[in-house]
Amino acid sequence: MKREIIHALEKIVGKEQLATSDEECACYSFDGTGRSFIPEAVAFPDSPGQVSAILRLANRHRFPVIPRGAGSGMTGGSLPVRGGLVLAMGRMNRIIEIDAANMIAVVEPGVITGELQAGLAGHGLMYPPDPASLKFCTLGGNAAECAGGPSAVKYGVTRDYVIGLEVVLPTGEIMTTGVRTEKGVVGYDLTRLFIGSEGTLGVFTRLVLRLLPLPEAGETFLLTFSSLREATTLVGTLLRAGLTPCTLEYMDETAIRVVRDRISLALPDTTRALLLLEFDGSRAEVARQRRHLDHLLKGRSLTCRRAENDREKEELWQARRAISPATFAIRPDKIGEDVVVPRSRIPELVEFTTSLARRLGLTILTFGHAGDGNIHVNIMIDRSDRHELDRGLAAKKELFQRVLELGGTLSGEHGIGITKSAFLPMEIDPVALDLMQRLKHLFDPANILNPGKIFPAG
Prior knowledge:
Layout: H1 3-13, E1 18-19, H2 22-26, E2 41-43, H3 48-61, E3 65-68, E4 85-88, E5 95-99, E6 104-107, H4 113-121, E7 125-126, H5 139-145, H6 152-155, E8 162-168, E9 174-178, H7 190-194, E10 203-210, E11 212-213, E12 217-225, H8 228-240, E13 247-252, H9 253-259, E14 273-281, H10 283-297, E15 302-306, H11 310-326, E16 333-340, H12 346-360, E17 363-369, E18 374-381, H13 386-405, H14 424-427, H15 430-443
Helix pairs in contact: 1-3, 8-12, 9-11, 12-13
């Protein structure tokens, strides 16, 4: 990056808020994919005005700008694949307002998701989206990827709670979208357009969030099965019966095997799958759901354990939370996908991954948010073994093809980034894809903001 650009950036954010050394830049070169691209500089703005000035400078000098939250994304959305400037938003981390009367929060993009949730509890309120990385991921990054989480089965995903934005456009203009009311249909819904756009259409500098009352009560259950199909089939049965769990998580036999030695929870030796089930709401509603669950489970060949207190609840959650780090005991690398299928097709998807693993000689494990059909498929590989990597990539393509055949989608919460961009035309029809690319060009004619993401090369 030319010295004149570095000097201009220093004038905008201050010399102490601009990193240019190789060591500092390396800290912002990677994300949850494990891939790395070194930026030419990293800026730490603390106001919309600074973000605006940086983007205007980028348009004059034609260098890429890559917005970054906590770098916890799983598809490469915050990677500086074409160099340029990483825009680290961590200094913009203020909770500006909690309007308890109207159940609204106004926050900056660098606020940690879990910290907002903890702060709202004292007001008797909750912000439902709960990605696995909530202890360190940021609300701006969540909005950019439209993050979900275990609670999505009942409460929905990030787009259902962002009702307004302050956004700096790629050309530097500052724009507000949305409302602070429950209803609002004036003009196009630009707020929804930005949510899930992966930092390609604008930089969030303020988010207006819809909140909900904190549930009065909750109960947690662990169901273990000796049959994989029985577990996946039961998901649809429970939901069709009128149960409304706030969490319905699934793990297959391979996932259970890799965590068994890392948890204190004793699982039956015959366990081939498990479901982690939670209800929340008023005490009367939770009690009603528990009775309904007991009735539905009568006569079934499974075990059901109910958490009696918070300690036991944490124990039941151990297995689910231990999966991601435990998988690397199998192979040093993984191709992790977050596909979604209609809930009724989950058994077919899981059986397909089992046969795919056997046919290609790979270890493939499945777990995730069974309540909304969002299954995480981890294809375990050693990238240093070229033949194994090729088999893993072949498995990924076959997985995507089967998901679409089942009426599903290639991503439920991780986004496209760079790891799925080549497969976008498999799902998006040519007219829609062309319109998306024209929208990107309309917002960002110089292709300054997060280039190389979402769309296939060329």
